[in-house]
Structure formats: C-alpha cells, structure tokens
Write a structure and sequence with these properties.
Blueprint (H helix, E strand, L loop, with lengths): L17 E3 L4 H7 L2 E13 L4 H6 L6 E2 L6 H11 L11 H8 L9 E5 L7 E10 L8 E9 L8 H15 L4 E7 L3 H9 L3 E11 H6 L11
Parallel strand pairs: 6-7
Antiparallel strand pairs: 1-8, 2-7, 2-8, 3-4, 4-5, 5-6
The structure holds coenzyme A.
C-alpha cells in the first residue's frame, strides 16, 4: 500500500489559482502552456450513515480536544500524518491558534483518540466543521482534517474515527457529509469510497510547464519547453 505523492511548499493552496475541473480542462490549459499540478476532489455522502457502516467500524473511544493541554499531541500526530502536505503539514501552535480564531471553530468538533499505552499521545483525530444551510445547499458537515499516526495506519483507526466524526456531524444536524481530498491520495480515497462517499466536484491548479518541471513533481509532463 502506497501513500500520497509529496507536494512541495510551492504548491500550497493559497499560492495557486484554482479552476473548476472538467474532462477537457487539461487540454485547454495545455494549449496555454500550463500543466496541472494539483487536483482537489470534493466528495459527499448523505447522512446519517447506514447502520451496517457504523457497526462495521472498530469501536473506539473518542473525546473532544482540550486546547493547550492537547496542543503538542495534536500537532505531533497532525504533522506526522500530513508530512507530505503543504497546507496541512508543518503546523505550529500559531497555526492552531489561527484556526481556533475562525468563527466556525468549536473544540467539541475536534475529535481525538488517545494512543493506547502512550499517556499523553494522540494517535488519530477527526476535525469537523459545520456549514449552515444556504439557498442551494443543506447543512453540510465537513471532515475538515483527519489524520492517523503513520505507526497506526491500516489498523482500522482511520475508518473508525471518520465514522465517529460523521456521527457527530449527524447529531449536529448535517444532512450530508463532505470533504476535500487530493485526487491521488489513494489511502484516503479508498477509505471514503468504502464509507459511501462519491465524487461531487473537482478543482484543479495549473502552472507554466517550465515551473512545474523545476518542482520535480514526478508527473508525466512531457519534454520541458
Ligand atoms: C487516510 C487515513 C486517515 C486512513 O487511515 P487508516 O487508519 O490507515 O485507514 P484504515 O485502516 O481505517 O482503512 C480504511 C480503509 O481504507 C483502505 N486503505 C487504507 N490505507 C490504504 C492504502 N494505503 N491503500 C489502499 N487502501 C487503503 C483500507 O483498505 C480500508 O478499507 P476497508 O474499510 O475496506 O478495510 C491515513 O492514511 C492518514 O492519516 N493519511 C494521512 C492524512 C490524510 O491523508 N488524511 C485524509 C485527508 S482528506
């Protein structure tokens, strides 16, 4: 089982321009000398989860994060799980404070799982976010960030804490679950597929071919100009 492709800091979401992605998008952009460097999926599924999906998940105890007391442990697991990611990796206490200052933030929406036999360590978290209903949308419950410590990957913890997060969002009134995921993040995509999520839409970011080549992204970009 392989993990996601590492993304360099130059590909931070706020450093890129994003466009709605469709089947002809790459070809159109290529005509302007641009190549795709990121593809971000939005996946959704109706809530609540079916009973059999809930009962198939490993029973785990989760609790709400405790600010300050849990900060080091939360940053540790986040930065290990997202070491490959320019937006979600490399977080500091300042990043945490900035997120907590957002109007939508609530401690109760950040679920954590304590590592067994490791006092003070968190080995998984599911950070959720509620989007109030709008004219065209129901109340959406977002899996804002989810991470499992690499030492516990493949043990069912990711699935279990995602289920806990979706159950939490259902209790908060969400009619649908949603999340954003890199299109090549195979472990996460498999997990979401198995939980009944389907692709809702996609956004892509492009760079001039020469810049993309310099970043050495491991993409098949053809010959540099
Ligand atoms: C995605 C992540 C949370 C999965 O956690 P995990 O504990 O390893 O996953 P689980 O053991 O619960 O597996 C869940 C399902 O995904 C599948 N899966 C997990 N890792 C996989 C991999 N590397 N390749 C293919 N499928 C994989 C499992 O087969 C499992 O399917 P099942 O329910 O049919 O058994 C974990 O890999 C992680 O923290 N990744 C880094 C952070 C991240 O990418 N978060 C998601 C951002 S949107």
């Amino acid at each position: 089982m392989t993990g996601p492709r590492p993304l360099p800091p130059q590909l931070r979401a706020d450093a890129l321009e994003w466009v709605a992605y469709d089947a002809d998008c790459d070809e159109r952009q290529l005509r302007s000398g641009l190549v795709r460097v990121r593809l971000l999926d939005q996946w959704r599924r109706p809530l609540p989860l079916e009973h059999d999906l809930v009962s198939a998940a490993a029973p785990i105890a989760v609790r709400a994060v405790v600010p300050d007391a849990d900060d080091d442990a939360l940053l540790h697991v986040n930065n290990r799980a997202f070491a490959w990611h320019p937006d979600q990796g490399g977080w500091t206490t300042r990043t945490l404070s900035e997120r907590r200052a957002e109007g939508w933030y609530r401690d109760e929406d950040v679920l954590v799982h304590d590592a067994p036999d490791h006092a003070g360590r968190i080995d998984a978290f599911c950070w959720t976010k509620l989007h109030p209903a709008t004219d065209g949308e129901p109340v959406l419950g977002e899996i804002y960030a989810i991470g499992v410590d690499p030492s516990a990957h493949g043990t069912g913890l990711g699935r279990a804490i995602t289920v806990a997060g979706l159950e939490h969002l259902t209790r908060r009134g969400a009619a649908a679950g949603m999340l954003y995921v890199e299109h090549d993040n195979v472990p996460a995509l498999r997990m979401y597929e198995r939980l009944g999520f389907t692709l809702h839409d996609q956004r892509a970011a492009y760079l001039p071919a020469a810049d993309a080549h310099r970043l050495d992204l491991g993409l098949d970009l053809g010959d540099p100009e």
